[in-house]
Amino acid sequence: MVSYFGLVRVRKLLVVFVLFFISLYGFGESYFYFEPFNATPTGWWYVATGVDGGLWYGRDGTFPTYDASVREESVNFTGGNLVFNRRVVNSSYPAGLGVWVGCVVGFTNKLWNPTPYNPFGFEILRKAARIDPQDGDPDYEGNGYGESNYESRRHSASMSIFLAVYSNLNNNSPNGTTFPDQIVFYDMMRMCDNVSNDAYTTPYSQWGYYLSSYSRLYTTSVPSLTGTTYNIKPILEWNMDNNWVHITNEGKSNSYSQYPNSYSTNTNYIKIMLTHDGNKVQFFVNPNPNNLSSGPFAGIPNAMLKLGEVGVGFKSNVFPLMGVETIRSDTARQYLVLDDFYIRTIASAVTSEISPYEVGTNSNFTLNIFVKPIFGSIDDSGVSEIHIKKPDTWTSFNWANYTNNIAVMVYSNNVLLQTFSKQVGDVNPNANFVSLSIKDGHTLKIRFRATSLANNQIIRPISTGDFTNKFVRIVISNINPSHVASGEIEVYVDNPKYGNTWTDTTVGTAPRYATTGRMKSYSGNALNIASIDPSLNDCNTLYLSIFGLPKAYGGISPNLVYQGTTNTFYY
C-alpha cells in the first residue's frame, strides 16, 4: 500500500509555503493512493478476513436481524487481490428476501467533499466475477434448493460499487439502516432478463446504476473521450449462471432442459472508474487494460470509455465501497476478485485569468488566457489537456475560424520554456506539438503529448520546486469583436487515459493518469501578467467585457439667420 495525503512527504516549511499559495489561488488538495492488496490494507473499513469480514450492507441497508450464522460471504486478501467468495446469505435466511443485502468493504482513509474545482474519483480493477443469482441445478451447490425454486426475474445478484455519504453505521445497527445518501454502480445478473436472441435465449448480465430506481447503461455503443464509439458488450455482459434453462418468462418446470455453463466466470480484466464533481457522477470502464488484440478485444482500445452519468445531490463526506449484493438466498455464488485500487489528483487547484478583460468594438483584438496549476505533491498527475469553454453569450463565435490564430506556450518562473507547433484533431500530439479539437461546438480542447512517463510534455511537478512556477499561455489573435459578447470564459484541465497515452501502465503498478475527471479552474489572480508582457494588464478574471465606442452628436442653434443681422450661435 502506498498513500500520500496532501503534502506529507515534504518538509514542514514547504507545507506552509504551498498552503499559502493554495489560500492565495483557491482551496484545493492533492492526493495519491495505490492499493495492490498484497496484504490486509489500512485505512479501509471492515476488512477483517473470512466470514467475519465485510460490512453486511446492501442498497436497502444493514441486515443484522439474523445472527452471523446466516451470513456466508467471505472476504479475503489472497494472491494480491481483494476476493469475495461464496454466497451473501445461506439457506437459513428466507429465500424471498424482497430487499437487497450485501457484503462490502469501504475506503475510509479520506472523506471527500467534491466540487467542480476539487473533483473526486477512483479506479478499481475487476479481474473476475461470477455473480450467479439462482441455484438452477437440483442441489448443485449443496444448499438444498435448486429445481424447486423456479428461475425468474426475482433472482438477482450484482457486483456493486457504492459512492455513499459516510455515517458510522455498523453490523450492529438496526435492520435497514442506510447511509444518508448513496448511488450504486452495478454489474447485475438477473435471470430471464437481458436474454439473447440465440437458439437458447442465453441470459446475460447488465450494467447500470441505482439511484432510487434502476437505470441501465448500454454497452453496444460506448464513446471514448475522443468521441469514437465501441461495442464492448462481448467483454462486459456475461452469462454468469452456471446452470440455466431455455426460457424467457417467469417460472419453469422440470420439463425444461438445463444448460450447464462452463464459462460462468467472467475473467476479462475490466478497470472501473467513478468520478464525482459535486454535481454529477460519471461511470467509466477500460475494457482492455491488458491491451489485447484478438477475439472480443480486437479494435478495442486500452482507454477509459464513458458508460454514462447522472446528477446527484450529495457532495459531503463521500467515500467508496465495493462488494456483492443479492435479493434472495437461493443463489449459487457471488464471487468477485478486485485489485489495484487507485486515486490520483491532477493538482491542488488551478487558477486562470485573461488579458485584456475590457475590449472595444472598434477593432479586432488579441486575447491572452493564462492557466496556472498549483501542485501540492510531486505525485499529482499534472495537466495533459486544457479545455476552454466559450461563454454562452458568444453565439457568433466559432472556434474553427480561429484555430490558425492560436498559439500555446509554457512558462516556468516567468521564463518561456517552449512555444508549441499545432496539429488538428483529438489525438496524442507529436513531440513539440499540441493538438487542437473542438467539442460540442463550445469548447476548445488542447492536448499535450502524454505517451508515457519517459515521453511526455505535460505540465507536471518534477520536484517540489515546481509546485507553483509553471503556467500555460494561450494566445488567440485577431478576434472580431462582433463575434463575442460580455461573458465569462470557463477553463478546465484533465489528464485521462487514452488508447495511446500512458502506455507504460501495467497491471499491478500505479498509473500516471488522473482518476478525478476534469477539474475546473478558478477565475482569479493566476500571476503577475505584466512581469512577462508589460503591454498587458493584470486582470485577475476570466470575465471579458465588451464595450461599444462612445457616440457624440453635435448641432447649432439657431439654424436659420437673416443676412445683415448679428446672431449668437449655440453649439
Helix content: under 10%
Which stretches of 5+ consecutive residues score pLDDT under 50? 2-26, 138-148, 248-255
- Kindly report the spatial arrangement of strands forming the biggest sheet: 36-35-26-30-29-28-27-33-25-23-37
The level 1 CATH classification of the largest domain is Mainly Beta
Short description:
This protein is mostly beta strands. The protein has two domains: 314 residues, Jelly Rolls, CATH 2.60.120.200; 199 residues, Sandwich (Immunoglobulin-like).
Describe the secondary-structure layout.
Elements: E1 2-5, H1 12-25, E2 31-35, E3 44-45, E4 55-58, E5 61-62, E6 74-78, E7 81-85, E8 96-107, E9 120-132, E10 156-165, E11 182-190, E12 206-210, E13 214-217, E14 222-223, E15 229-230, H2 233-236, E16 243-245, E17 258-260, E18 270-276, E19 280-286, E20 305-311, E21 318-328, E22 333-344, E23 349-355, E24 358-360, E25 365-374, E26 385-389, E27 406-412, E28 415-424, E29 433-439, E30 443-448, E31 450-452, E32 455-456, E33 470-479, E34 487-488, E35 490-494, E36 519-520, E37 522-523, E38 543-547
Report on the structure:
The protein is mainly beta and 571 residues long. It folds into two domains: 31-344, Jelly Rolls; 349-547, Immunoglobulin-like (Sandwich). The protein has helices at 12-25, 233-236; strands at residues 2-5, 31-35, 44-45, 55-58, 61-62, 74-78, 81-85, 96-107, 120-132, 156-165, 182-190, 206-210, 214-217, 222-223, 229-230, 243-245, 258-260, 270-276, 280-286, 305-311, 318-328, 333-344, 349-355, 358-360, 365-374, 385-389, 406-412, 415-424, 433-439, 443-448, 450-452, 455-456, 470-479, 487-488, 490-494, 519-520, 522-523, 543-547. The strands form seven sheets. An eleven-stranded mixed beta sheet has the order 36-35-26-30-29-28-27-33-25-23-37. Strands 1, 2, 6, 7, 9, 18, 19, 20 and 22 form a nine-stranded antiparallel beta sheet that branches. The chain is elongated and about 120 Å long.
